[in-house]
Amino acid sequence: MTEEDWHSESNPGPMLEHLKRRLRVAPRARGRKFRLTAVEFLRLRTDMVSNPRVARAVEAGEAMCDGAGTLPDVSAILAEAGLRADPSDLPGWGFVLKFLLSPDSFTAAHEIAGLTHRVRWPTPGRAGYARDELTMASQAWIIRDVFGNPFRPATCPPSWRTSAAGALAESVYEARDFAAMPVLADALEEAGCDDADVLTHCRGPGPHVRGCWVVDLVLGKA
Question: Domain spans of the chain?
Answer without folding.
Answer: 3-146, 158-219
